[in-house]
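Entry 12.
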Amino acid sequence: MRRWLCPLLLILLFIGCSALVGAADLTLNDFAYGLPIDVPEGTPVAALSLPEAVYTHARRPDLGDLRVFNAAGEMVPHLLRFARSQSAESPWQALPFFPLPAAADTASGGYGVYVQTGPNGALVRITPPETSASAQPSRDFLIDLSQTGRRLVQLRLAWPPDRINRMTTLAVEAGDDLVNWTSVQSRWSVTDIRYGSRRLINNTLSMKTTGRRYLRLRQLDDGPPLVLTHVEGRLAAEGSNPVRAFTKVKGQAVADTPGKYRYEIGGAFPVDRVNLVFDAPNSMADAILWSRPGPKAQWVRRAKALFYRIDVDGAVLTGDSRPVAVSTDRYWRLTVDASASTIGNAVPQLEIGYRPHDLYFIARGKSPFTLAFGSSLATPYSVNVAALFDGIGRQRGQGIERWVTPKGKPVVLGGPQRLAPQPKPLPMRRIVLWSVLLGGVLVVAGMAWRLARRLRP
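Predicted 3D structure (tokens):
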């Protein structure tokens, strides 16, 4: 009995371990698509922002079907994080501003004023000439960027807290010498309109970084002068990537249900901003947005707001995107209150904003590496690698990581069929355990039978 008992148990254990190891291993062919990544030699940790294609083709909302392989096909440890360097936008900073008198410009293009600047070019004082004492209220403003940095990407204006409706058209220009100016925004419609309990306000301008020392605001219309109380600016966030990515999704009207529209965003995007885009001028929709992860799940309310597009003298005024709790839901629904809307039969587009994840991985092995994604076999990465990435800085350029960019478009690995649900695998662990248990029972039964034979007279 002992001669074949040990070999039997060893065989069962070997079969069980082989089955369990085979079930846990994943290869490149188990994923639908991949992105090649070149990593410079000597890089300890590589990092990249996840491209849109990963969200589009990932099967799991938690991105658990994502792996990184080196050139030898070996899996390397990785870690996903929300883009901390991009998640927190720079705070608003007060900007020094000076009203410019309404006196006529000088022949050189400047103003007939005395301007005093400090050693670093900061404006200290603007003194109008004596002849301008009876001039009209200021319609132009000078903004000093020399103290707060020149990487300005947003400008926000504030005016007295009254209930006067405002609609003003401004031109925004940038310069370094207070004489020569280049256009930043040729027409910017600044509005503050109230009607009942509603308020349409547009006091923020997004713009490209100019690198110039000063900004000038010029009022183009003949309406009442714009009176400013505060001017604030927001600097560009750290890192070369945008703070958020935005994409537009076309919708469809729900049949036999006026005022309802459905959208499928086509990926597990971590949405945290929403807006509606109208093709027709002067459109407005008092609406509620809902979402859900699957076609049969319950709808969850995400936002209720007044979305609008107003066209004024060739300029288009739209509302800012609305913040929502981060959601990876694929299915969205829009409900419009027809009594407070002017969109008719048009179907607005849904604009979603999201923060791409940052992916970090240990650059073990030779390049090129492959970011593989989209698999019905893969489960969330269970190895705790957080300790390995403790040295990574939360802002670019401050950690041990080196930022890389995937090469080209996604390549086909195992193909789209890897996204389809696979047949339920055999419960190998249970089979092995029961096999070992059954083998033990047989061994005990054999020993009892042999003992019984010896005791037989």
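Annotation: The longest strand covers residues 182-195. The mean pLDDT is 80.
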